[in-house]
C-alpha cells in the first residue's frame, strides 16, 4: 500500500503516463506499506523507474558491445579507461554529454554487465532531472560496477521481496566454467513482470537468461543458474532532494531506508547501503 506522509492513501493518477500508473498500482496493491513524504516524492520515483526501463531499452539498441573488464573500451574523447577496466570521465567534458555519447556512439564502447547497469541508471537520472541538474550533481563520474558506485546512494536488500519495473536484479551461475568467468552471473534491469534486460544477453524472460548462463557451466554440471533473492535501486529520496536544489541534502534523505529495512541488519559502505535479514 502507498501512503503519503499526511495519511493520504489515494492519488489521482489519471494524468500520469501508463508506465507510471502501472508501477503505482503494483505497489499500491502490495501489503507492504510504502510511505512517501509527498506526492512529489512518489511521482519522482515512478518517473525515475520508468526512465530506468527506457534507458535499458535504449542501451539494447545502442550498439555498445559486451566485454570483460580486461577487454573493455570507451570513447577517449569523453572517458579515460582505468587499469581495472572502468571509465573515468574526462574533466574537460560535461557529465550529461559523456553519458549520452555512450548511447549515440555505442560502437566505440564495450563493457561488462555490471558497468552497463551503472550507465543505465545514470542515463535514467539524466533524463529525469535534465542536463543542468545532472551536471551539477555528478561532476566526477566513474563507471565500473554498481557495487562500487557512491553517487546514486544505491540500496541493496538481500532478501526475497516484491520487485518492480526499474529494479536491479541478479541471476547467479554458481557452477560457471572457469574459462568463462564473465558468465558467473548476469546483472539485469527488470522491465516488466517477466521481462529483463541484461547487457550481452539482451531483452528476454527469466528462462532465457538462465538458459544463456547454463551454456557456460562446467562440463557435466547439473546445477542451474537462478535468480537470487536480492534487489538494488537508487536512493530515490536522496535523488529527489538533490534534484530539487536543496543544498545541503537533508540528513533524513541521506539516511533514508525503505520500510523493508525495519528490524534488519543495515550496513553502510561509502554511499552504498546493504540490508540483510
Automatic annotation (TrEMBL):
Keyword Methyltransferase applies: no
GO process terms (BP): sporulation resulting in formation of a cellular spore
UniProt GO molecular function: protein-glutamine gamma-glutamyltransferase activity
Signal peptide stretch: none
InterPro entries assigned to the protein according to its UniProt record, in alphabetical order: Gln_gamma-glutamylTfrase_bac
Keywords tagged on the record: Sporulation, Transferase
The protein's name: Protein-glutamine gamma-glutamyltransferase
Organismal lineage: Bacteria, Bacillati, Bacillota, Bacilli, Bacillales
Amino acid at each position: 500500500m502507498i501512503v503519503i506522509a499526511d495519511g493520504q492513501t489515494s492519488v489521482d493518477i489519471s494524468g500520469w503516463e501508463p508506465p507510471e500508473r502501472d508501477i503505482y498500482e503494483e505497489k499500491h496493491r502490495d501489503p507492504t506499506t510504502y510511505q512517501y513524504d509527498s506526492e512529489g516524492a512518489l511521482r519522482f520515483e515512478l518517473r525515475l523507474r520508468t526512465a530506468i526501463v527506457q534507458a535499458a531499452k535504449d542501451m539494447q539498441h545502442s550498439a555498445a558491445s559486451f566485454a570483460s573488464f580486461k577487454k573493455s573500451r570507451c570513447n577517449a574523447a569523453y572517458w579515460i579507461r582505468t587499469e581495472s577496466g572502468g571509465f573515468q570521465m574526462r574533466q574537460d567534458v560535461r557529465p550529461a554529454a559523456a553519458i549520452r555519447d555512450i548511447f549515440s556512439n555505442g560502437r566505440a564502447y564495450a563493457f561488462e554487465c555490471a558497468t552497463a547497469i551503472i550507465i543505465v541508471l545514470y542515463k535514467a537520472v539524466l533524463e529525469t532531472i535534465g542536463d543542468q541538474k545532472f551536471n551539477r550533481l555528478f561532476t566526477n563520474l566513474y563507471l565500473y560496477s554498481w557495487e562500487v558506485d557512491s553517487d546514486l546512494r544505491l540500496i541493496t536488500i538481500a532478501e526475497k521481496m516484491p520487485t518492480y519495473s526499474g529494479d536491479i536484479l541478479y541471476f547467479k551461475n554458481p557452477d560457471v566454467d572457469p574459462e568463462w568467468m564473465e558468465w558467473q552471473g548476469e546483472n539485469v534491469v527488470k522491465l516488466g513482470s517477466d521481462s529483463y534486460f541484461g547487457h550481452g544477453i539482451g531483452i528476454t524472460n527469466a528462462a532465457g537468461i538462465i538458459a544463456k548462463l547454463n551454456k557456460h557451466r562446467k562440463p557435466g554440471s547439473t546445477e542451474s543458474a537462478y535468480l537470487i533473492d536480492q534487489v538494488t535501486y537508487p536512493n530515490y529520496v536522496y535523488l529527489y532532494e538533490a534534484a530539487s536544489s536543496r543544498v545541503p541534502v537533508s540528513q533524513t534523505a541521506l539516511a533514508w531506508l525503505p520500510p523493508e529495512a525495519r528490524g534488519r541488519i543495515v550496513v553502510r559502505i561509502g554511499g552504498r547501503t546493504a540490508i540483510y535479514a
